[in-house]
Design brief:
Number of helices: 12
Strand order of the largest sheet: 3-2-1-4-5-6-9
Oligomer: single chain
Largest sheet: 7 strands, parallel
Mean pLDDT: 95
Number of strands: 9
Distance between the termini: 61 Å
Strand content: 5-15%
Low-confidence stretches: none
Length: 349
């Protein structure tokens, strides 16, 4: 067995290199041709049923509006019922013929089952499942006071998507529907202080890539990996070292720094367009995908940049980082951040 592995160690790298040289040009041409066809024959979602989790704010809220503009029937789920009702009313104004509001916590498996069940009871079918619900944590791993308090990150971000998907898959098979999984570019970028969040999003990507093989071609899956987008997360809402949810815009500035923050409306439009075209992956804003190639080909450079920009010196505050100093010195926040995330006021119910 060792001889076989030694042989493969020698043969596999050059074989892979030359195979890719031959295979990639026609494959890219084929994908380009398919992208043109999918743009021309994009799915019409008018009259189709869409579940959106985490629909009370941020990207989820604007996804509801974007689907509504296209005439989709909506089932909106989130924990904050009043905010969800407000989003539902606005979605009706935008053109959705029917909107079902389902107060639910996706970290609870019974709530996820209820989301799908109530949708099927009300509409009788399901065409798109949009797994968007998510929260963030910002703290150094060694500063956590009780590590078990951060299970909620995985419970909502990862398991919430898995639970809902499990109950939705049989109905999506019947309609040959689609799953839109809101992961994050954090799945490949090792930003300090967000280790739990990064892990939850990386788990989502791997799960849905595997599921794509198991359920395809009956169910198409679009994995979305946004950069920094206008939301409560980029507003500064996250779990800190004691496991409490806070809004800390100074710490937000440390993490986002001078990276432009995209609008939720533009992101939602790109996501719905991508899902209707059947895209496998979507990064918004599109330029953020470049960070993936830096991660693949120069991981040491990514790590060095994060240490330089985002790590504070021992004995100093988390807010004493080069990333925040540059942001404060240049005043770039007024240009690079949407006005909606300048205020710490968030929806509370």
């Amino acid at each position: 067995m060792e001889v076989i592995h030694k042989l493969l160690n020698i043969v596999a790298p050059p074989f892979t290199f030359f195979s890719l040289c031959l295979f990639l040009p026609p494959f890219w041409f084929y994908k380009f041709f398919l992208s043109i066809l999918s743009s021309i024959f994009s799915e019409n979602v008018a009259g189709k049923v869409v579940i959106i989790t985490g629909a009370s704010s941020g990207i989820g809220e604007h996804l509801a509006y974007e689907y509504a503009k296209r005439g989709a029937l909506l089932a909106l789920a989130a924990r904050r019922e009043k905010s969800l009702e407000e989003v539902a009313d606005r979605a009706r104004e935008y053109g959705s013929p029917d909107v079902l509001v389902i107060p639910a916590d996706v970290s609870k498996v019974e709530d996820c089952k209820r989301i799908v069940g109530e949708t099927m009871d009300h509409f009788g079918r399901l065409d798109h499942l949009v797994s968007n619900a998510g929260i963030n944590s910002v703290c150094m791993f060694e500063d956590t006071t009780d590590i078990t308090l951060f299970r909620t990150i995985m419970d909502i971000n990862f398991w919430g998507s898995v639970y809902t998907t499990r109950f939705a898959v049989p109905h999506l098979r019947n309609s040959r529907g689609k799953i839109v999984a809101l992961a994050s570019s954090a799945s490949w970028l090792p930003a300090p202080r967000t280790s739990f969040y990064n892990a939850s999003k990386a788990a989502m990507v791997t799960f849905f890539e595997t599921l794509r093989i198991e359920v395809g071609p009956e169910i198409k899956i679009t994995i979305v990996t946004p950069g920094f987008i206008e939301s409560e997360i980029t507003q500064g809402k996250f779990l800190v070292q004691d496991g409490k949810m806070v809004v800390d815009q100074d710490l937000r500035d440390v993490q986002v720094s001078t990276i432009p923050v995209g609008t939720a409306q533009g992101c939602a439009a790109a996501i719905v367009n991508g899902a209707c075209r059947g895209e496998r992956y979507l990064t918004q804003p599109a330029w953020f995908k470049a960070t993936y190639f830096w991660k693949v080909f120069c991981p040491e450079m990514i790590e060095w940049c994060y240490r330089l920009m985002y790590m504070n010196r021992p004995g100093t505050s988390d807010r004493e980082t080069l990333s925040k100093k540059i942001l404060d010195l240049t005043g770039a926040k007024n240009i690079l951040y949407p006005s909606t995330i300048h205020t710490p006021d968030i929806k509370t119910d």
